[in-house]
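Postdoc handover notes: sequence design on the structure in folder B. Input tokens:
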């Protein structure tokens, strides 16, 4: 067995590839035991498994435990000495780590942070100062003289800044410069703490500011503060910064804190920071977390901060993946509604919706509920047995679209292949075409998939290059030309396969009445009209089906993409009994086709379609977007065309290449893709609002306009 060579990732793309976890099982500074059990619970739980599943090369390096534990009620100086000793040992362990190791410290109470950040400061001292983002409900800036509670875990930040008892301030390593430190999420403090930090000039983003401005904006400003005069920075997270309704398993919970998901999303920005050199998470109480949700959040927080960024992920994809795609330079991590977020937390408006598959937006709650509920009951049995979801889906599709029979499969390509097989067998068994003589007519510029059979119908040279010989029995006619269709029909013609709008061909809309005329020609010659509505169906073009614009009910209908709600591949071929009943058991099948999980999601999609009628909004918003783009009168735009929310903008390649335009738009937060080399497509989720669409139009016009103005100094190259 052979193995490929190790992946080479340049140093600037290989940050945090060796994460070393140091546990600090100390609660010496806390009011009670509990946080000292946190490191062991996380080490023996799923933390490492979760991190490795995210592509983080993490290992548990060691766990530091106190050598001396003062008895309950011991005087302050004994407790300070014990905490200082643990902190010194943590600092020593950190300075002993290999330079390429990335330290991830898990407490323990927050007093361990004295050792963490003195040790990390020592690691970077030869290059300059360390910055620190301190995420905490409290200011942790008491000294032994100002404390109200006597708890030493309220003192670490003051000690790190050089103020307090020598047992704490004397831990080896440079004190932190207050100008390089900030606090996020504070909402409980004594006046002495606030006065100390104000005197020192430390920036505090309290919880009121977080609520007012949002966690993402505050975290962005915090990064600016801690990186302004430092060579590296770290992040310390006291879990009491989180809202206790979401995370109760912490030492000193305070109401109205940061939502864990908001903090996770903000921490994604760290993936793009090569100067982020250490992470600390403290004050997890496993005895208050019987269900493990707190431990899961700890893993999520660590994963958000430490996970690989765009560069290493794309490098892995290029190295290990087949080169049959050339994705745009972004790696998406999360989607919600019409928005996408990349692995560094940047937000994009999705103007592609996965080629119309995400019509109801990302993570639609009803679709997710249908998926989760069914997944917990039954996901797959194969069609060797019946399941209780598929019959309901077949009935709904049949009734909604007016066909006797439905054959469910997975991908759109499978549905097209199913239609081709049905048409050929119908020609032989019903129409009486001689064996092996059946012909199927397709159109120039078509795109029905990439199987050997289907690319044999294609007029795109790249789709065919190197894949022949192709099956016989196919011919092509110009799209939109009904006279050419009629001229091509012979007694052996089984079917005419056509897209209602050519999507991959460049968003080509046929002349008005084209499909109606095709239907009349096919009826007269006893030829099946099969319409591919994989991209255009289910509301995309301003009608439930694009066929409806011409009042056409084809002999065969192919659906896909949106039928799976953006969650699963679901497609189907629909026809009346006269066509579909040529199939007998064993003629055609699919292990996953019609599985109960897909059927449950598709049923919910149909419910949403009937309840919300998204095609009505698509018609109105599509006209609005096309009008805005046309009236911009940009010199790089040759034409704006489409129906509903399937719109193509054809560009003049002498001014702006479509691939370049797609990258420029991506850089400005618009996710789309070029097609047919000269066209930018816009097909957002059908749930997009008018305001979101107007925002997209403004960004597109501004971005393309700027590119046009730059053309005066020479064309932009792809």
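Designed sequence:
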């Amino acid at each position: 067995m052979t193995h490929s060579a190790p992946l080479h990732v340049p140093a600037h793309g290989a940050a945090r590839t060796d994460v070393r976890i140091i546990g600090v099982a100390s609660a010496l500074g806390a009011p009670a035991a509990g946080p000292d059990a946190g490191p062991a619970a996380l080490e023996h739980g799923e933390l490492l498994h979760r991190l490795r599943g995210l592509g983080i090369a993490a290992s548990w390096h060691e766990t530091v435990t106190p050598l001396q534990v003062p008895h309950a009620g011991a005087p302050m100086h004994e407790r300070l000495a014990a905490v200082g000793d643990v902190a010194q040992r943590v600092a020593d362990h950190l300075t002993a780590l290999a330079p390429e190791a990335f330290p991830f410290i898990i407490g323990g109470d927050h007093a361990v942070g004295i050792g963490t950040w003195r040790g990390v400061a020592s690691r970077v001292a030869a290059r300059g100062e360390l910055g620190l983002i301190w995420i905490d409900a409290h200011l942790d800036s008491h000294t032994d003289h100002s404390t109200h509670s006597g708890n030493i875990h309220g003192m670490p930040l003051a000690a790190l800044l050089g103020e307090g008892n020598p047992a704490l301030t004397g831990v080896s390593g440079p004190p932190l410069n207050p100008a390089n430190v900030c606090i996020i999420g504070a909402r409980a403090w004594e006046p002495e703490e606030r006065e100390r930090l104000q005197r020192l000039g430390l920036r505090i983003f309290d919880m009121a500011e977080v609520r007012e401005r949002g966690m993402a904006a505050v975290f962005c400003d915090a990064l600016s503060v801690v990186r302004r005069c430092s060579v590296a920075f770290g992040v310390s997270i006291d879990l009491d910064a989180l809202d206790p309704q979401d995370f109760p398993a912490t030492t000193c919970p305070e109401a109205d804190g940061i939502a864990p998901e908001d903090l996770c999303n903000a921490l994604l920005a760290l993936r793009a920071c090569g100067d982020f050199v250490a992470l600390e998470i403290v004050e997890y109480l496993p005895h208050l977390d019987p269900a493990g949700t707190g431990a899961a959040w700890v893993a999520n927080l660590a994963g958000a901060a430490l996970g690989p960024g765009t560069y290493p992920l794309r490098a892995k994809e290029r190295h290990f993946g087949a080169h049959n795609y050339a994705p745009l330079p972004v790696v998406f991590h999360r989607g919600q509604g019409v928005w996408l977020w990349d692995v560094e937390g940047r937000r994009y408006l999705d103007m592609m919706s996965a080629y119309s598959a995400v019509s109801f937006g990302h993570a639609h709650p009803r679709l997710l509920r249908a998926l989760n509920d069914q997944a917990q009951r039954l996901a797959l049995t194969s069609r060797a047995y019946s399941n209780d979801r598929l019959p309901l889906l077949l009935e709904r599709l049949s009734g909604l679209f007016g066909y006797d029979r439905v054959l469910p499969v997975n991908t759109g390509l499978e549905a097209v292949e199913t239609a081709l097989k049905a048409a050929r067998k119908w020609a032989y068994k019903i129409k009486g075409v001689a064996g092996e003589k059946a012909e199927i007519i397709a159109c120039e510029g078509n795109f029905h998939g990439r199987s050997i059979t289907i690319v044999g119908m294609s007029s795109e040279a790249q789709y065919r290059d190197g894949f022949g010989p192709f099956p016989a029995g196919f011919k092509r006619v110009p799209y939109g030309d009904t006279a050419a269709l009629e001229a091509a029909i012979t007694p052996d013609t089984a079917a005419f396969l056509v897209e209602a709008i050519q999507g991959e061909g460049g968003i080509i809309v046929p002349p008005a009445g084209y499909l109606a005329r095709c239907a009349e020609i096919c009826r007269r010659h006893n030829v099946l009209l099969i319409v591919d509505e994989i991209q255009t169906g289910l509301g995309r073009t301003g009608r439930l089906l694009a066929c409806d614009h011409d009042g056409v009910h084809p002999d065969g209908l192919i659906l896909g993409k949106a039928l799976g709600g953006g969650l699963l591949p679901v497609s189907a071929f629909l026809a009346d009994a006269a066509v579909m009943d040529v199939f007998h058991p064993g003629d055609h099948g699919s292990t996953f086709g019609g599985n109960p999980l897909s059927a449950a999601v598709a049923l919910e999609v149909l419910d949403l379609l009937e309840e919300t009628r998204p095609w009505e909004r698509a018609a109105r918003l599509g006209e609005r977007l096309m009008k805005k783009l046309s009236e911009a009168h940009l010199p790089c735009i040759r034409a704006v065309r489409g129906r509903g929310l399937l719109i193509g903008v054809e560009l003049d390649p002498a001014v702006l290449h479509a691939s370049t335009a797609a990258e420029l738009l991506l850089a400005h937060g618009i996710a789309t893709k070029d097609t047919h080399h000269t066209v930018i497509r816009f097909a957002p989720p059908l749930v997009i609002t008018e305001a979101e669409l107007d925002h997209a139009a403004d960004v597109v016009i501004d971005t393309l306009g700027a590119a046009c103005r730059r053309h005066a100094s020479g064309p932009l190259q792809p």
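Context for whoever picks this up: The chain is about 35% helix and 15% strand. Don't rerun without checking with the PI first.
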